[in-house]
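Tokens in:
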């Protein structure tokens, strides 16, 4: 079974945080013994046995796209060239699909990569993140996607259950909607925490944009400024945001740094994002590491955090203050962290578990197409 695996993000090396989940998925799929994996993505370390399909020109264009923050960030940021990038992506993908004829199944990460599919009968599995739902509001996107789905077997795989309903509404008559959670690297499950009760350490791991931060800085100020507890912020600065001097900002962090330096001593992970999240991978990794979660009360978070069991959901500044105080009690913190780890192990598993979920759907697609 030859799978054409397409993505617009991929880590450049082992220290790159961008698109790590795509790399992990690719490596897990490559470990499936009866599957031949062909990858079109930005350049980076490939699993043994995988074929890299980008031409030198496409490779350079994809590398530049990653250096500029990825297709979604480029479009959101506006400016010169922002409007042209999506069309350039469509052009490159159209060329890829035209020259690659030996395809058993298309595995297309994110709906936009399906737009230039050729009029053939090859089945397609399309993954969906939260930002893809915003894409559907753009003119012509939905009818163009429906057009490429009409003459092939299609399974659409959001990475969170809450996205099923809008996708059923948009495409349920043409495609099967099957939520598939991403996996977790075993390294996260192996982490053991050592907490400092005198100076509680809280971390937020996020791209620094106003939507991703949400009210984090405003709500945290009375709790952290001049207090013993510390808020450590880790992630790339993608918008010009002035950080107060009581915030400890460390820039982008690699997965190895998170595992070795931060998750081992953090009281918990905080995300007050107001962004169109799907199923935030860093939350799952933190839960696998035994960290309680404090999160804004939105669908992407309520599907992961069991309020009062694996963490706390917040709708107001007072909710947030109560959550911080509640989870700084050692016994409460340990219990919430253990519950978070147990839930993720049961419901999500590893990347090999994730690959098995996708391979099962590939086979169903091939049977439907026969």
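Residues out:
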């Amino acid at each position: 079974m030859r799978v054409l695996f397409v993505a617009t993000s991929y880590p450049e090396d082992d220290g790159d945080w961008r698109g790590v989940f795509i790399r992990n998925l690719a490596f897990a799929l490559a470990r499936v013994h009866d599957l031949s994996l062909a990858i079109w993505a930005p350049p980076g370390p490939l699993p043994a046995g995988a074929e890299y399909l980008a031409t030198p020109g496409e490779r350079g264009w994809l590398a530049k796209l990653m250096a500029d923050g990825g297709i979604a960030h480029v479009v959101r940021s506006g400016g010169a060239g922002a409007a042209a990038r999506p069309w350039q992506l469509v052009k490159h993908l159209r060329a890829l699909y035209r020259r690659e004829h030996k395809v058993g199944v298309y595995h297309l990460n994110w709906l936009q990569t399906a737009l230039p599919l050729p009029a053939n009968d090859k089945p397609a599995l399309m993954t969906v993140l939260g930002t893809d739902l915003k894409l559907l509001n753009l003119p012509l996107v939905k009818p163009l996607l429906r057009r490429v789905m009409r003459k092939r077997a299609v399974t659409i795989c959001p990475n969170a259950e809450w996205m099923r309903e809008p996708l059923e509404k948009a495409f349920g008559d043409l495609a099967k909607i099957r939520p598939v959670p991403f996996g977790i690297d075993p390294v996260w499950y192996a982490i053991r925490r050592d907490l400092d009760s005198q100076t509680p350490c809280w971390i937020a791991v996020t791209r620094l944009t106003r939507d991703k931060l949400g009210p984090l800085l405003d709500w945290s100020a009375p709790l952290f400024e001049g207090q013993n507890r510390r808020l450590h912020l880790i992630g790339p600065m993608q918008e010009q945001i002035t950080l107060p001097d009581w915030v400890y900002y460390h820039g982008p962090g690699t997965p190895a740094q998170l595992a070795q330096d931060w998750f081992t001593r953090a009281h918990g992970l905080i995300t007050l994002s107001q962004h169109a999240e799907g199923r935030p991978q860093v939350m799952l990794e933190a839960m696998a590491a035994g960290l309680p979660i404090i999160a804004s009360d939105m669908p992407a978070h309520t599907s992961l955090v069991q309020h009062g069991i694996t963490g706390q959901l917040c709708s107001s500044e007072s909710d947030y203050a109560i959550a911080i105080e509640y989870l700084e009690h050692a016994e409460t913190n340990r219990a919430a962290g253990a519950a978070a780890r147990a839930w993720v192990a049961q419901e999500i598993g590893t990347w090999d578990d994730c690959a098995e979920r996708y391979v099962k759907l590939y086979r169903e697609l091939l049977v439907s197409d026969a």
